[in-house]
Structure formats: structure tokens, C-alpha cells
Design a protein that fits this description.
The protein has 217 residues and is an alpha/beta fold. Helix content is 39%, strand content 20%. A 5-stranded parallel β-sheet has the order 2-1-3-4-5, with helices on both faces. It has a 4-stranded antiparallel β-sheet with strand order 6-7-8-9, covered by helices on one side. Strands 10-11 form a two-stranded antiparallel sheet.
């Protein structure tokens, strides 16, 4: 899952990003609304964690732009105000969920994951395919009932492949979904991660390489 964190309190923004990355998410961070608009015009995000009171461009305007563009991106709006009227207003302009500050990080994680599941084709909380069971919330993977220990990026790549439900996923798409914008697009990190993931999942291999196209399960 790829997430954009938009928060002008830099310490909070960086802390949220670090926590989300530990949950095997690819995270980009910006600190104002203008930078947020620039990022959503370039990258595809599953979820935007959006502070409402932003400098340069207000969070409400960023949210309206996402809706206007017809993007599949889901918006979790943050605000220091806990007033019901503010929450209602945020939802009315297009936010998918609302979380007042201060918040428990575990709740933020749960809400981001819940929004990430709201794809065009609804998927269950626990993904199962080819004898593999992946639970994004618990960060657990099992193959034929045996737990498989994965590093965050390996987990992220497997989650993207599982969510594709048998469709081929290109290396570029994996790079887009499982790594942030600071990753060199010409690196072989995708190929190396897939190789390691195959080894950890064991025999027989479940990740198929489709020459010239990408990978699928």
C-alpha cells in the first residue's frame, strides 16, 4: 500500500511515516498543501493522511482536488478539533474518514488499512491465494499453515501480488506500490526482493515470472 502523509508538524509527520513504514507501507511525506497537490499529480496513492489545517493550500482544498480528479485515493483527514460539526464538514467535502488529534497510533494504522481495502473490487481483511494466507493487520503470513517471517518490503511486495488476484504485476507497479519516491527507479531492488521472497515462501514456487511483463501469484 502506498500512502502520502501531509502534515505541517514535521515531527508528527515523520513519526507517522516511520510507523507506517514499519507496517510495510510505502510512505511519502510533505509538510504543506501545495506540495501535497504536486505529489498527487505525479504519484498514485492508496491513502492520503491529510491534516486539515495546512499552510499554503488548506487541507480542505487538497481534499476537494482529489475528489475533483476522480481519484481512487482515500482520504483520512486529521484535525486538532474534535467538534462534531468539523468532522461532518470534513466528510461532506470528500474525506473518507476523520481522526481527531491526539490519536492512538494503533487506531491510525487500523483506519489507514481499512481505507486501503476500499478498492474498486472489495477484498477481505485476510488475503488467501495458492496456499498463502496474508493478514495485513497482524503482519502475518502463513503458507500451508506454517508461518513465514518476512521483512517489511518483502511483506509489501507479497501483499501487492496477493491483492492483484492472479493478474500480472509489473516491476514498475511493484516499485510504485511498495517503495517511496526516494527509490532509484533503475535499481534492481524489485528483482532482488522477489528472489528473496520466493526463497522464504519455499517450494514449490508460487510467484511466477512472466517474461517481459512482471510477476503474478
Amino acid at each position: 500500500m502506498r500512502v502520502l502523509v501531509v502534515e505541517d508538524e514535521q515531527l508528527l509527520a515523520d513519526a507517522v511515516a516511520t510507523g507506517l513504514r514499519r507496517e510495510a507501507m510505502a510512505v511519502d511525506v510533505v509538510y504543506d498543501g501545495a506540495a501535497a497537490l504536486e505529489r498527487i499529480g505525479v504519484n498514485d496513492y492508496d491513502v492520503v493522511v491529510l491534516d486539515r489545517d495546512l499552510p499554503l493550500v488548506h487541507g480542505d482544498d487538497v481534499c476537494r482536488k482529489i475528489v475533483e480528479l476522480g481519484m481512487a485515493t482515500r482520504v483520512l483527514m486529521l484535525t486538532a478539533s474534535g467538534d462534531v460539526s468539523d468532522r461532518v464538514e470534513g466528510l461532506e467535502i470528500g474525506a473518507d474518514d476523520y481522526l481527531p488529534k491526539p490519536f492512538a497510533f494503533s487506531e491510525l494504522i487500523a483506519r489507514v488499512r481499512a481505507l486501503g481495502r476500499r478498492t474498486s473490487v472489495p477484498l477481505p481483511p485476510v488475503l488467501e491465494r495458492a496456499g498463502i494466507k496474508l493478514d495485513p493487520n497482524r503482519r502475518e503470513v502463513f503458507r500451508e499453515g506454517k508461518e513465514v517471517q518476512l521483512a517489511p518490503k518483502e511483506f509489501a511486495v507479497l501483499e501487492v501480488l496477493m491483492r492483484s488476484e492472479g493478474a500480472v504485476v509489473s516491476a514498475e507497479q511493484l516499485l510504485e506500490k511498495a517503495w517511496d519516491e526516494n527509490t532509484d527507479p533503475f535499481t534492481n531492488v524489485v528483482r532482488v526482493t522477489v528472489m528473496t521472497l520466493r526463497r522464504k515462501l519455499g517450494e514449490p514456487p508460487v510467484i511466477v515470472t512472466v517474461p517481459g511483463s512482471g510477476y503474478r501469484i
